[in-house]
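Case 219 in the screening queue. Each case pairs one protein sequence with one candidate compound; here the compound is glutathione. For every case the pipeline is the same: read the inputs, emit a complex structure as tokens, and attach any notable structural observations.

Predict complex for case 219.
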Amino acid sequence: MQLFWTPASPFTRKVVVAAKELGLWDQIAVRPTTWPLEWGYATVPFTAGLAEANPVARIPTLLTDDGVALGDSTLICQYLNDRAKQQSAGARIIPADDSQWPMWSLYAIADGLLEAQVAMRAEMLRPVALRSDGFLQKQRDRITRCFDRCEQRAAELEIAGGSLPNLAQITVAIACGYQNWRDWLWDFRPGRPNLVSWYNDFSQRPAMQATEPRDTPEA
Ligand SMILES: N[C@@H](CCC(=O)N[C@@H](CS)C(=O)NCC(=O)O)C(=O)O
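Case 219 output:
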């Protein structure tokens, strides 16, 4: 398998953490990726092969060994969960029973949080005079509501004994990590003691430690 990747992308980090937790990471070759930004569109080319494999041309994109291009992190995590089930009976990050539905409910909140963070990032890359205050405020309000809901649902973040973390737990942790990392975002911790205490533990997992976000000169 090949993964179009940058170390800054939270959606890509979700896939990498999932692959590591499932024991599949050593089966994936990384393809460091750049793409043209809207402002300065002509200055940075797409990484060779990305737009050809996935015309949406976003990361993460996974190329399977069967030549299928999967261009969305949720889909890639479902694929990896399926691969892991075939290779080792117990390994899963998506429950097979009805407990998957509350998991997906929390996942959608955490994934929406990532979308708002990345939307703010794109806006912050624009020249200051062209940024929309209304758009930025809408994303800030969405982020605040979603972190509040994660705090209210913190009991669902506890990992069941002997299990791997589920996909919602992985995604909440990545949203917390991204919020801490970007200096134009704000501290998610005040007023959310349960989320903070959980995140402090979760962020010590080897898969999280190995994937701390960072910018590269290329992307
Ligand atoms: N829903 C997609 C979102 C992926 C996404 O927004 N990726 C960003 C990087 S974090 C990207 O490729 N941006 C480049 C662009 O939009 O041109 C997923 O879950 O994979």
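Case 219 observations:
- The beta strands are 2-5, 29-32, 61-63, 69-70.
- The pocket of glutathione is lined by residues 9-11, 35, 58-60, 72-74, 118 (CB under 6 Å).
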